[in-house]
Design goal:
Blueprint lengths: L2 E2 L4 E4 L25 E2 L11 E2 L3 H9 L8 E7 L5 H25 L8 E8 L7 E8 L3 E2 H4 L10 H4 L6 H20 L2 E2 L8 E6 L2 E6 L6 E2 L17 H4 L6 H4 L7 H14 L12 H10 L5 H10 L10 H13 L2 H11 L1 H4 L5 H4 L5 H4 L3
Antiparallel strand pairs: 1-2, 2-5, 3-4, 5-7, 6-7, 8-10, 9-12, 10-11
Helix pairs in contact: 5-8, 5-11, 8-10, 11-12
The protein binds adenosine-5'-diphosphate and magnesium ion.
Length: about 375
């Protein structure tokens, strides 16, 4: 297995050699299956480098769904729950469709920006004796996720110092974060919010001697309507305070719209990688002043990264910069016009910046169960 999130399992596809009864196209009988033991991703508690054996049932499913078995491809398998089958299938189809939209957008741009290519996908019902329904996506394989890249297995530490072993220092890491921002922009331009931007959902790969990055896992993505999303989904650690405050409140029941929070999650990743790998997450309203101060004081953090963090780490969602601003700042840094761009943004936001946090975003809401006296 190559990785596992909270939702799917990702297996490495393998060509079984001819002498094992399989030709190089992946056709023919699969006499022996070799799915390696692998690290389990995503949930950090599971990431304590425990080697887990792939569950036997899943191993068989992986090899039964052998539509395309080739090197440099992985297969994500999602087992749908019986009681929410229709909803899960809709979600799966949306995930695949967004992956294809991104792929198309990247191809159209003629950019060398990496993205996950979808080679095959489908839904498999009743495989052998197992009655469950699975969705599978065969896609291009990346080297590793960003969480594993900035983690040191031996010391248990993480942060940019640990990625040096892959030759990823400050300039390379800024290229990686530029790619992530480009991916968020592609999504937002196509009116999707990713909703689960985090280190585990960023994959990296070496292209023409440079480490480049792509955003993966559109399982929680939602549509943006009038610059707002309906979903409060996401990994708690990466959610902005105004959403976390309302996570367990009546708000989700009322389906109240919120701002896309991908840019906030982007800043959280910048903080984890460049400022403080041990930052206490999720970031609450009361943490903002201290975090802003430690970002300003961090000596070995590139100024462009400091600026990005400081322009996102704000109480009010409307005073945070957009993904377009993030990309403008990153390219201004390259062309030496950073100060000009920063001045323009500061001028635009001068009214908002002087306002105190709005009452909606500063006080935690009453949990919904308390509203009914539960
Ligand atoms: N294309 C890929 N190449 C290599 N590894 C991958 C790829 N896609 C996912 N993974 C690994 O599998 C993990 C889980 O995949 P993901 O799509 O995020 O599933 P989930 O929806 O369960 O979070 C990722 O964090 C990553 O480590
Ligand atoms: Mg994931």
């Amino acid at each position: 297995m190559y990785g596992e999130g909270s939702y799917g399992k990702v297996y490495k596809c393998k060509v079984v050699s001819k002498n094992q009864g399989e030709n190089s196209e992946g056709k023919g009988p699969l006499s022996k299956t070799k799915v390696k033991k692998g690290f389990v991703g995503d949930a950090r508690k599971k990431r304590a480098n425990k080697r887990l054996t792939v569950q036997k049932g899943h191993r068989e499913e992986a090899w039964n769904m052998k539509r395309v078995i080739q090197v440099n491809k992985v297969m994500k398998i999602i087992e749908f729950s019986e009681d929410r089958l229709e909803r899960d299938i809709d979600k799966f189809e949306k995930e695949v469709s967004i992956m294809k939209t991104v792929q198309h957008a990247v191809e159209e741009q003629g950019d060398v920006l990496p993205c996950v290519q979808v080679y095959d996908d489908g839904i498999v019902r009743s495989v052998r004796s197992v009655r469950s329904v699975f969705g599978f996506i065969v896609m291009s394989m990346f080297t590793q996720d960003l969480f594993d890249t900035v983690k040191d297995d031996n010391s248990g530490r993480y942060g940019i110092n640990c990625s040096m072993k892959y030759g990823i220092g400050y300039p390379q890491m800024i290229i990686i974060f530029t790619d992530i921002a480009k991916h968020i922009k592609i999504l937002h331009d196509n009116r999707y919010a990713h909703n689960d931007v985090k280190l585990e959902n960023v994959m990296i790969i070496k292209k023409e001697g440079q480490w480049r990055a792509a955003l993966i896992d559109f399982g929680l993505a939602s549509t943006i309507v009038d610059q707002r999303i309906n979903s409060l989904a996401g990994t708690t650690a990466y959610l902005p305070p105004e959403i976390n405050n309302h996570r367990y409140s009546i708000r989700p029941l009322l389906n109240i719209k919120v701002d896309p929070h991908d840019v906030w999650a982007y800043a959280v990743m910048l903080i984890e990688v460049f400022v403080n790998p041990r930052v206490q997450l999720p970031i609450g309203h009361s943490d903002i002043p201290d975090l802003r101060r430690s970002t300003e004081q961090k000596e070995d953090c590139p100024p462009v990264v400091k600026n990005l963090i400081l322009l996102i780490l704000k109480y009010r969602p409307e005073s945070r910069i957009s993904i377009d601003d993030v990309l403008e700042i990153l390219s201004a840094e390259e062309s030496g016009t950073l100060q000009e761009v920063l001045d323009r943004i500061a001028e635009r936001d001068v009214g908002l910046a002087s306002l105190p946090p709005s009452s909606d975003t500063s006080s935690p809401a009453k949990p919904w169960w308390k509203l009914w006296g539960g």
